[in-house]
Amino acid sequence: MHCGEQTALAFAYMVVIAGICLVVQADVVRYRPLLLVLAAGKTASSLATLAFFLIDEPFFILLLNFLVDGFLALLSLWLWVLAGRIGRPVDPG
User: Which DSSP category does 91 fall into?
Assistant: First the structure.
Protein backbone atom coordinates (compact mmCIF):
# COMPACT_ATOMS: atom_id res chain seq x y z
CA MET A 1 0.00 0.00 0.00
CA HIS A 2 1.35 3.42 -0.91
CA CYS A 3 1.68 6.30 1.52
CA GLY A 4 -1.16 8.22 -0.17
CA GLU A 5 -3.53 5.27 0.22
CA GLN A 6 -2.60 4.89 3.87
CA THR A 7 -3.15 8.59 4.45
CA ALA A 8 -6.55 8.46 2.74
CA LEU A 9 -7.61 5.46 4.83
CA ALA A 10 -6.40 7.08 8.03
CA PHE A 11 -8.25 10.28 7.18
CA ALA A 12 -11.44 8.35 6.40
CA TYR A 13 -11.14 6.44 9.68
CA MET A 14 -10.81 9.69 11.63
CA VAL A 15 -13.88 11.13 9.87
CA VAL A 16 -15.86 8.05 10.91
CA ILE A 17 -14.63 8.39 14.50
CA ALA A 18 -15.58 12.08 14.56
CA GLY A 19 -19.00 11.22 13.11
CA ILE A 20 -19.63 8.59 15.76
CA CYS A 21 -18.68 11.09 18.47
CA LEU A 22 -20.94 13.77 16.96
CA VAL A 23 -23.94 11.43 16.84
CA VAL A 24 -23.40 10.03 20.33
CA GLN A 25 -23.02 13.40 22.01
CA ALA A 26 -26.45 14.44 20.72
CA ASP A 27 -28.17 11.74 22.81
CA VAL A 28 -25.77 9.56 24.78
CA VAL A 29 -28.40 7.17 26.11
CA ARG A 30 -30.08 6.59 22.75
CA TYR A 31 -26.84 6.12 20.82
CA ARG A 32 -24.99 4.29 23.63
CA PRO A 33 -24.27 1.20 21.44
CA LEU A 34 -22.11 3.36 19.17
CA LEU A 35 -19.70 3.75 22.08
CA LEU A 36 -19.00 0.02 21.76
CA VAL A 37 -18.31 0.52 18.03
CA LEU A 38 -15.91 3.31 18.93
CA ALA A 39 -14.21 1.13 21.55
CA ALA A 40 -13.87 -1.74 19.06
CA GLY A 41 -12.28 0.53 16.45
CA LYS A 42 -9.85 2.04 18.93
CA THR A 43 -8.97 -1.39 20.35
CA ALA A 44 -8.25 -2.71 16.85
CA SER A 45 -6.10 0.31 16.05
CA SER A 46 -4.27 0.07 19.38
CA LEU A 47 -3.49 -3.64 19.09
CA ALA A 48 -2.51 -3.37 15.42
CA THR A 49 0.02 -0.64 16.12
CA LEU A 50 1.40 -2.62 19.05
CA ALA A 51 1.86 -5.59 16.73
CA PHE A 52 3.61 -3.43 14.13
CA PHE A 53 5.82 -2.00 16.89
CA LEU A 54 6.81 -5.46 18.17
CA ILE A 55 7.07 -7.33 14.86
CA ASP A 56 7.97 -4.84 12.16
CA GLU A 57 9.67 -1.60 13.19
CA PRO A 58 10.08 -0.26 16.72
CA PHE A 59 9.08 3.34 15.89
CA PHE A 60 8.09 5.44 18.88
CA ILE A 61 4.98 6.76 17.07
CA LEU A 62 3.59 3.21 16.94
CA LEU A 63 4.05 2.78 20.66
CA LEU A 64 2.48 6.18 21.25
CA ASN A 65 -0.52 5.29 19.05
CA PHE A 66 -0.94 2.03 21.00
CA LEU A 67 -1.07 3.96 24.27
CA VAL A 68 -3.36 6.76 23.05
CA ASP A 69 -5.83 4.54 21.20
CA GLY A 70 -5.81 2.06 24.08
CA PHE A 71 -6.68 4.87 26.46
CA LEU A 72 -9.47 6.04 24.14
CA ALA A 73 -10.84 2.48 23.93
CA LEU A 74 -10.95 2.23 27.72
CA LEU A 75 -12.50 5.69 27.96
CA SER A 76 -15.19 4.69 25.45
CA LEU A 77 -16.01 1.61 27.51
CA TRP A 78 -16.15 3.66 30.69
CA LEU A 79 -18.51 6.15 29.03
CA TRP A 80 -20.64 3.23 27.81
CA VAL A 81 -20.97 2.02 31.41
CA LEU A 82 -21.80 5.52 32.65
CA ALA A 83 -24.40 6.04 29.92
CA GLY A 84 -26.07 2.82 31.00
CA ARG A 85 -26.65 4.31 34.45
CA ILE A 86 -28.58 7.30 33.11
CA GLY A 87 -32.31 6.95 33.47
CA ARG A 88 -34.79 8.30 30.95
CA PRO A 89 -37.43 10.75 32.22
CA VAL A 90 -40.99 9.48 31.92
CA ASP A 91 -42.97 11.01 29.03
CA PRO A 92 -45.95 12.94 30.37
CA GLY A 93 -47.96 12.02 27.23
Answer: P
> What is the rounded CA–CA span in Å between residue 32 and residue 59?
35
Give CA–CA dist 71/40, Å, rounded. 12
- Note whether 66 and 50 are within 8 A (CB): yes
pLDDT 10s digits, 54-92:
999 889 999 999 999 999 999 999 999 999 988 666 666
Neighbouring C-beta atoms of residue 39, cutoff 10 Å: 19
What φ, ψ does residue 85 adopt, rounded to 5°?
Answer: -90, -10
CB 35 within 8 A of CB 83: yes
Q: Name the pTM for this structure.
A: 0.83
Neighbouring CB atoms inside 10 A of 33's CB total: 11
Q: Identify the pLDDT of residue 93.
A: 61
